[in-house]
Amino acid sequence: MTRVFILFGLAFLPGLSGCGDRPTLSPGLDEVETAPSPLTRPKPTFETHVAPALDRHCLECHDSATKRGGIALDGLGERASSREDLETWGRVADALRSGTMPPSGRARPSTAELAAIDEWLDAEVFRCSSPDADPGRVTLRRLNRAEYNNTIRDLFDLDLHLADAFPADDVGYGFDNIGDVLSIPPVLLEKYLAAADRAIGAAARTPQAWSRIMNPPLDMVPSVHRKLVRPVRSEPVKRIGRPLSSAPIVEDPEVLALRRAYEILRGFADRAYRRPATDEELTRLVALVDSARKDGDTMDEAIRYALKAVLISPTFLFLAETEPETGEEGRSGPVNEFELAARLSYFLWSSMPDDELYRLAARGELRRGDNLAKQARRMLRDEKARALVDGFAAQWLQTRSLQDVTPDPKLFPDFDEPLRRAMLGETARFCGAIIREDRSVLEFLDADYTFVNERLARHYGIPGVVGDRFRRVSLAGTPRGGVLSHASVLTVTSNPTRTSPVKRGKWVLDNLLAMPPPPPPEGVEGLKAEDGATPAGTIRAQLERHRTNPTCASCHARMDPLGFGLENFDAIGGWRSSGEDGKPLDASGTLLGAESFRGPAGLRAVLKARREMFARCLSEKLLTYALGRGLGLADRCFVEAIARTLKRDDYRFSSLVLAIVASPPFQNRSQSRGKPSS
User: Fold this and answer.
1) Concatenated DSSP letters for 511-564?
2) Which residues sit opposite 334 in a β-bridge?
3) Is the peptide bond before 665 cis (omega within 30 degrees of 0)?
4) CA 249 to each of CA 254, 282, 574: distance values in angstroms, whole numbers, following the listed order
5) Can you list the alpha helix ranges (DSSP code H) found in 27-77?
6) What are the tens digits of pLDDT across the range 269-305?
7) Confidence band (pLDDT; 50, 70, 90) for 524?
């Protein structure tokens, strides 16, 4: 593939460190040559293209003798095309693609060399075009709090917010819908029982909700498609003598009552389980009704007892998927259509599939033609797509943390709860507009508009806005643009008493460029900043002293310049022209590639020039959220393909969603290995 590599030293790659100090030889943005077309060059090989480049640019620091950063590349030649050293090759690829390696001061590979290495890595190491590319497995995971609330809302047509009383969800890979970290503490089991009682009680008191339960529609699941959940033949309820689904109507009122219970519970369980309930599951539920009736409960009371069993069952509380029927253990295969519908609905709505999505899955038509893309577009237009703002954007941008931030009231007396709410409202409405209006995701970097009410407009110095209602305003002629100038982002990346170029720079690397620095080494102290005392010197001067420690310099040289570009914004996002010492602020920064910029506008230009890196970052973040699992090296090809689609379609948000929905890891899963024999 052809790529134009922008060579700059922004991102930090743990383990690959520079050696030697020589004049910078990296080309500027205007000096990068165009790589030859793949149509005019032979297919790259390790011996012809990769090994010579490694010898010229890498082995002086990364051979078996030197092994800088624990990386030795000279031993990879004899197993160059194997996946044995996938992690090492992944680190090499990241370093070359980001321009981190070779380090500043060292001769850089040409664009043609980089393109050849990149093409060889994709073809021979990462196997991007291989039909055996591993789509990964999503760990069985429970519904998080938002998903539970939304699912109860759509199941009963009641907005009860029962999960607000649940323990907070754990976070992994930046999101709270990751199966590997969503544990079930004992107290949560008690909360599930109480929530089920409250939901059913509220529905019973609401005629419309109760009627929906007691009068389910015509069978939404054609019988031929119930085989998708592998129904299990089970012992029938003894009082009837045969499976209830085929029991004839004789004159026995008890038989009629249980048959009625069967129909009610089948309609409810089919929706709650997000796929057809099996014979075994329905038989157990009707047996609960039968038992309750024997104990003297009315039919309504007995039905409520069985409904509670549905709501506390693992099938409702967990997003479970069956093993793909690939015919060969360990191979990958497609998830069934009910599972695909659930993946789509919990991705875009954080809730269960609606009737239209469910019916398509039941008829086996969700994958037919362009139905899946049509459904995704329909769902993005629906009000329930607000879940992408609350679930994805607020965690990606880390603005959820604003609820826990308390700036020093003596230093920032203007900060109050109305301003906090206005900060959150701006970012939520901005992200919602990009999703709802299908705008370019590059507007996250430099949009010339935002959403403010009177309180936030006064904070920003924007005239003419009156009242609590938010409205879209132009930022033309102001120093603001994109999410980096949102007070919500600027506040969560500050300390209570001052700004933090380190936090802000790290935020940019992590959330806009997908190149987070590692945690600080043990024993390295940070800046002494709080406890009411202002440390001697400006923040810039302190960080310059901090970087004299070689252990600290490698990370801070990448983070600090980015943060300096935002120094004109104070710790709550207000504009300022002077710093802590009363002198004019220096908001300039110089990247490791010797590229300089000044102020927020200059930083936005730097990031806009790295739009392809941003596209990969956003693709990685949204794919992680969509799958509910962390990404590994095997997923890098999928991320690259999604990012290329996003670029091809002018960076429209819908193209990002559609590329993810069409991707192999979203539509498929690997079989587990070593399954016990039957």
Assistant:
1) HTSS-PPPPPPTT-------TTPPPSS-HHHHHHHHTTSHHHHHHHHHHHHHHH
2) 668
3) no
4) 11, 18, 74
5) 51-57
6) 999 999 999 999 999 999 999 999 999 999 999 999 9
7) low
